[in-house]
Specification:
Largest sheet: 13 strands, mixed
Radius of gyration: 20 Å
Order of helices and strands: EEEEEHEHHEEEHEEHEEEEEEEE
CATH superfamily of the largest domain: Zn peptidases
Bound molecules: zinc ion
Shape: globular
Strand content: 35-45%
């Protein structure tokens, strides 16, 4: 293992912590850079990338990294940690949901091998951010904590998430990593056999988190994310001690319910509520007060997400977790 942890010109030798910028690209008015922190531990171990802010208005995860980057002592760390609190700084600055105010794209879909070139009036900032972050940072990671939460309009169940692949052993390791974070709920997406690979890039084994939402940043939720980060570092043997987690967690498979009509969406339930097949969980009205649609759930489950009251035809209104199972 190299003695140095290096991202572009920022370099931390063994036992060092360094803070600086990842240079993304040049904007019309100057460089586009995002803050990063490198922690190069005294001991050997894996490399973990911790990032928040792919969606710039999801706050509790990024806030947690601000504590971890201060507290993490390279003298007590085996391995390396790279922290980027807010990847999508343009969205963060503009209080923007999902995309950003420059090219409107959701950067989670912009991790590609080559950054496409722009056209007249069509900048490619999301591709530049995602792909540069991938090449310079994520490609160095063995593991990734990708910290999300409900965006400005999303009421979301706090939990971790991962996607299973055809590789059962690696998928089980990924589940164990989610479990180690310590949340009660784990959102498990199933492999999509036969679906064309959307990305050929290889990503580190990733635990996604959803913590809080609707534009709020609350210290108790932030503390929960901090604890989860340390739990994962302990699970990986990078910090001394055992993860402090509840004795059981519940795993579910997500699916969406879509609106048949555009209108005003009023929900009877919130994230975390348990529902039974056939329950009417919400209604959509027009702006004359007429009910256009009653939304019933087709399965038992848990409410994972409730979206905006301003609904367009075809929008997601709910995400539901079904097939709930308990694991130790
Ligand atoms: Zn998000």
């Amino acid at each position: 293992m190299s003695e140095f942890l290096k991202v572009q010109n920022l370099e931390a030798s063994r036992g060092e912590k360094k803070q600086g910028y990842l240079r993304i690209s040049e904007k019309p008015a100057g460089p586009h850079m995002i803050p990063i922190t490198l922690v190069n531990g005294d001991g050997d171990g894996p490399t973990v990338v911790i990032n928040g802010g792919e969606h710039g208005s999801e706050y509790n995860g990024p806030a947690a990294t601000l504590t971890v980057m201060k507290e993490l002592d390279p003298g007590e760390l085996s391995g390396r940690v790279i922290i980027a609190p807010v990847v999508n700084t343009l969205a963060f600055e503009a209080r923007w949901m999902h995309g950003n105010p420059i090219d409107y794209r959701d950067m989670t879909g912009c991790y590609v091998e080559e950054i496409p070139r722009g056209g007249s009036g069509v900048p490619k900032i999301s591709y530049q951010v995602a792909t540069t972050f991938y090449k310079e940072v994520l490609s160095q990671g063995d593991y990734r904590l990708n910290l999300h939460g409900g965006d400005l309009e999303e009421d979301l169940l706090t939990g971790t998430m991962y996607r299973r692949t055809e590789d059962e052993k690696r998928s089980d390791e990924n589940l164990a990593l989610c479990r180690a974070f310590g949340y009660d709920w784990i959102r498990e997406s199933l492999p999509r056999p036969g679906a064309p690979a959307r990305r050929r890039l290889e990503f580190p084994m990733t635990v996604g988190t959803e913590a809080g939402g609707m534009g709020r940043c609350m210290s108790d939720i932030v503390e929960g994310v901090v604890k989860g980060i340390y739990n994962v570092l302990k699970h990986l043997g990078m910090l001394d001690g055992e993860p402090e987690i509840p004795s059981r967690a519940r795993v579910y498979h997500p699916y969406h319910l879509y609106a048949e009509h555009g209108g005003f969406f009023i929900s009877n339930v919130m994230a975390g509520d348990m529902v039974e097949e056939g329950d009417v969980v919400g209604i959509i009205k027009d702006l004359w007060g007429n009910t256009l649609e009653e939304i019933a759930v087709p399965t038992d489950g848990v409410i994972h997400m409730v979206t905006s009251p301003a609904i367009w035809e075809g929008d997601v209104v709910y995400e539901i977790g079904k097939d709930i199972r308990e694991i130790e």
